[in-house]
Amino acid sequence: MASYLNSAFFNRLETLTLRMQPDLRGFFGGKHLVKSYGQTVDFADYREYTIGDDIRRIDWNLYCRFEKYYLKLFTDERQMHVQIFLDCSASMDVSSQKSEYAVALAAALGYLAVHNNDKVSFHFIRGQRAADPFGIIVGRASFFAAMGELERQKYESEADFYSAFRSTPIGTSDGLTVLISDFFTDEKWKSAVSYLCRKKRQVLLIHLLTPEEADPGFLGRTQLIDSEVPELADRRNVRVRVTKALLEAYKEVIDEMRADIKAFSISHGIQFLPVITSRPIEKVIFDDLFGVGLIK
Amino acid sequence: MIFQWLLPLGFLGLLSLAALLLIYILKPKYQQRVVASSIPWLLAIKKRKKKFPFDRFSNIIVFLCQVAIFTAAAMILAQPTLVNEEMVNAGNERIIILDAGMNMHATFAEYDGTYNLTRFEKAINEIKAEIDRVLYEEDGTISIIVAEKEPRFLIEDMGRDSYTEIVTALDEAECSYSVPDLEGAVLFAQEKVNVNPQAKVEVFSGTDFGYMGDAVTVHNLSNTAHEWNIAIMSAVPSYVDNEYIFEVDVAAYGNVSKITNLYIDILGVDDGVEVKDFEGMKLPVTFEVDSNHLEKGQTQHLTLKATDTQIGGNADWLVPSFREAKLSFRDIEDSIEADNHISVFGGERDEVKVQYYSERRNMFSFLTFYTMQESMRRTRDIVFDPVYDIDEIPQSKGFDFYIYEHDVPLETFDGGLPDDGVLIFFDPSPEILESLNLGVEVGNYVSVEEDDVFTRGASNPIFANLDPEDITISEYLQIKPTAGSGYSSLLNCGDDPLLLAKKEGASQVVILPFSVNQSNLAFTALALLYRNILEYYMPLTLTEYNYQIDETATLNCKGVRIDVTDPEGEKVEELREFPAEYELSEIGTYTFTTLFALNKPSEIRSVFVRPPLSESSLFQVADLGLIINNEDIFAKNTKDMFLIFACIILALLFVEWILQFKDII
Q1: Hey, of B32, B38, B661, which one would you mutate to test binding to chain A, going by the most A CBs within 10 A of its CB?
Q2: Rounded CA separation B434/B413 (Å)
Q3: Which CATH number describes the domain made up of A7-22+80-292?
């Protein structure tokens, strides 16, 4: 992680702010403007007085002009809860580059949240569980304390997103959920993400692949051993003669997988970011996330 | 165009397929590679299979391609070659087959009584016209094959420059009386056609052929409207009830409607008193018109007897023997004259005079010779002259066989041994053998013991049909032939001969040194022994007297030589080794004169040679097919198939490359 997350990198992150959706409800405090009216000093709108309103908020100047009671409304700023789910299945650790990259992304997003006075929690999905070893992190001190443990996570077995989400307390419309995964799983990830959508959370899906996964460079007779299924006799560990044609088909499959995730994201109002680990993480943060519209 | 393998051993290269199979049998090694997930790979494989469903067969197609490549390579080793056959054209050539069989003598009388040209003469004229056309209009060449007993080229491959020679050869050609070997002539023609398939074959014959090939043209010279033939097919004498009768077959071919006479003259009839000629007999024969008889003829069987007064014979004309019987049709003018007459021989049975001397009168010898007489009655007259009187001196001249049994008065041989017949000594005394100087050393009388064995000696017809094991002799005189005496021992008891025989020029002697009284020989066995001796020393010169031309007569000789005289009366051969085979190549009467080493007159026997029976049929339809094979004769032009097979291999390699690396393109 040292290669990605260093003080210079974090210093640059401090120039950025997470762009949260305004219809989130969030928590009291914080820096994110939301659609609801609050107690800030930024004017938002007027509306007629109704019984029960706080008479202290009547704009008397308007009363003088229109002889009607209008309330002066101000925007509200809320604190969001950023939940970062990291796929800790064995497939994410097939190369150290991939796992480090995922951790770096998670840390960067966590730091952005902490920097914006948001609450952050890290969830490590293994099997049907999503471990939450740090709890809710608020403040930089707590964040950096957790960073030491972040890179020591184990990657093993498979990841069942749906079960993991269901077993994790997820608030309704109170922030952003980030899922970092290679999505080498079955179709149940869609149910899991749909669950998040039903919770009215802002969702960011980061599809993380290594260059070798995006474009394998080997040919010939190969026994492919699935990192999540170490038993050689398992039918998923196929013997295959890798040809150029098969590689082309593989790349088509990867492209289709991404297109599928993207289409699902568009249809559900989800932000989606495909990432190849060969791309410098700074570019992902400062360019790609800009493109997605998550940061400003 | 024919495909051939010039070096079939090259197919041993197919053994390399075993190596290929071994490679496939050995399991390929798969490298192991850990991937994040095999899910996309499985999806890719599924996608690939969906996109290219035949991919699953690619491995087997690749294997088949490799097998085909190895096979094609082995085929190249076997040197594949295309043999292209180009038709040979050696120019215009005409091959003429001229039938020279007896039927080509056929002609017919014109209304004015003059005879038309024979078939052969007509054929010669037509061939000359054909030669003119071929030589001068087609500028071709001519070969003429004469089909007679043995086919031969009259001329061969002659062109315009040899016209005179061709015509001369044709003018000198003669028609034979043989059966033509048309099949052999066709083979000769086939040899010519093998060289030049465009050669045409023309056959000039009086015979119809069942089927003909395209390359053959038959000119049938027969004339069914005018030609006809009457023939004496056979005449065989038959000795019945002490006289000869004649079994005769006559036949007519063509549209014949005739009542004619078969004339018979029997010459040299010996009734025992004088030799007579019975002439003037004739038997009316009727042939009716029947178109079905064109080919197979209308045959009749006749039995002729000289005592038959209805045919001009006489009740007194008994024929106990005859020298020659002449049968002929004289009043007809048919197409072939040569088969209108025939001479019959075989009516003179051999007379064999036997003198038997024994000091003891006995019925045993009488029964023996009577039995022998009866058994040989059909072919020989055996005159038996026994001498039993011990005071009588037996004759030493005038017999064919002199048999002396037991002791003989030495005065008998005062004038020397008989020189005109075979001497047979049965149980001779030692004194006789020693005094006559017969070429044997005489020992003592020997009694036969129980364990003595009788064995057959040298192979000789004298001992035919006799088994030594059936003979028992109790005592015999021990004799031994001197060196160079020429005896053959035919029966032995131990080392002692019991039957000595020799036949060397005038010295013809048989010695049996035992008494029949001290043996178990029955008179029938003894008769058989005498018969064998007679057959050995005096065989019949001829056993068959009727022949067709080109047949072979088998001759035996009583003496030392037979002189052969042909139908023209010329002595043509002296035969000295017997039995002899003599080919009768002319029609007519052949005479065989036997000359003896013994002091006796020569013997004359004759046979008649008639034309071939089959040729008397004028309108034959031959089973022979005149098929000349002129289609499959081509000059071979070979073309190496190496390049084609190399291209096949390249194509297969390309296909394999496509299958193996098609994802590249």
Answers
A1: B38
A2: 13
A3: 3.40.50.410
Give the span between the Cα atoms of A42 and A34, in whole angstroms.
12
> Are the Cβ atoms of B664 and A244 closer than 8 angstroms?
yes
Question: Cβ contacts of residue A264 below 8 Å, gap of 6+?
Answer: A190, A193, A270
d(CA B444, CA B476): 8
CB pairs under 8 A between A and B: 94
Q: Is the CB of residue B343 less than 8 Å from the CB of residue B610?
A: no
Instruction: Note the CATH architecture for domain B350-537.
Output: 3-Layer(aba) Sandwich (3.40)
Q: Which part of chain A has CATH 3.40.50.410?
A: 7-22+80-292
Q: What phi-psi label fits residue B53: left (phi over 0), alpha (psi between -120 and 50 degrees) or beta?
A: alpha
Looking at 2.60.40, 1.10.3470, 1.25.40, 2.10.25, the CATH number of the domain B228-334 comes to 2.60.40
Partners of residue B37 in chain A, C-beta under 8 Å? 91, 182, 184-185, 226-228
Class of domain B93-225: alpha beta
Instruction: Using alpha carbons, list the distances in angstroms from residue A13 to A56, A272, B28, B153, B375.
Output: 41, 20, 53, 123, 151
| pLDDT tens digits, one per residue of B478-514 | 999 999 889 999 999 988 999 999 988 778 999 999 9
CA distances in angstroms from A245 to A110, B21, B665, listed in the order given: 41, 27, 9
A157/B contact by beta carbon, under 8 A: no
Give pLDDT tens digits for B10-19: 778 788 778 8
ipTM of the complex: 0.86
Cα B357 to its chain centre, rounded Å, is 47
Residue A250 CB coordination number (10 Å) = 22
φ/ψ of B280, rounded to 5, equals 100, 5
Binary contact (B37, A227; C-beta < 8 A): yes
Cβ neighbours of B32 in A, within 8 Å: 222-223, 225
